[in-house]
Design goal:
The protein has 124 residues and is α+β, with helices and mostly antiparallel strands. It has a single domain, classed as Nucleic acid-binding proteins (OB fold (Dihydrolipoamide Acetyltransferase, E2P), Beta Barrel), CATH 2.40.50.140. The protein contains 2 helices and 7 strands, in the order H-E-H-E-E-E-E-E-E. Strands 2-4-5-7-6 form a 5-stranded mixed β-barrel. A hairpin with a 4-residue loop joins strand 4 and strand 5. The relative contact order is 0.15. The mean pLDDT is 84.
Length: 124
């Protein structure tokens, strides 16, 4: 086999390995709160907000609320930012982050609100 073919194949394999490693880093699995407590990795936790539990800590500049997952596990979620729009109407919340020191520290919050996707004039 010619030397330039071997070099070409080696370069392709290096780029392929690099792409696979970066893809694995970007995948964030959905887990329960119990599983989030056991792992030190960044995960996605899906659940519902506990009504009346949310507040903005102006001193620390964080938004704090309580969340309950599908298994009934509840925890405090701390998000370094302002309250997302339509937070009160959310039927489901996805918090992306990790569980640290007895609370879930979210780097992102996704709010799933069905009214956002209803057609104009549609009745709920």
């Amino acid at each position: 086999m010619k030397r330039k073919y071997i070099i070409g194949i080696a370069v392709i394999l290096v780029f392929l390995a690099f792409a696979i490693l970066n893809l694995r880093k970007s995948l964030t699995p959905y887990v329960s709160l119990a599983e989030a407590k056991r792992t030190q990795q960044t995960v996605q936790v899906k659940g519902a907000r506990v009504e009346g539990s949310e507040y903005f800590d102006a001193e620390k500049k964080v938004f704090v609320f309580r969340m309950v997952d599908d298994q009934g596990e509840e925890c405090e979620v701390v998000y370094p930012g302002v309250k997302p729009a339509n937070f009160e109407q959310a039927t489901e919340i996805v918090a992306i982050g990790r569980y640290v020191n007895g609370r879930f520290e979210a780097s992102r919050i996704l709010v799933k609100c069905p009214t956002k996707y209803q057609a104009e004039g549609a009745e709920s």
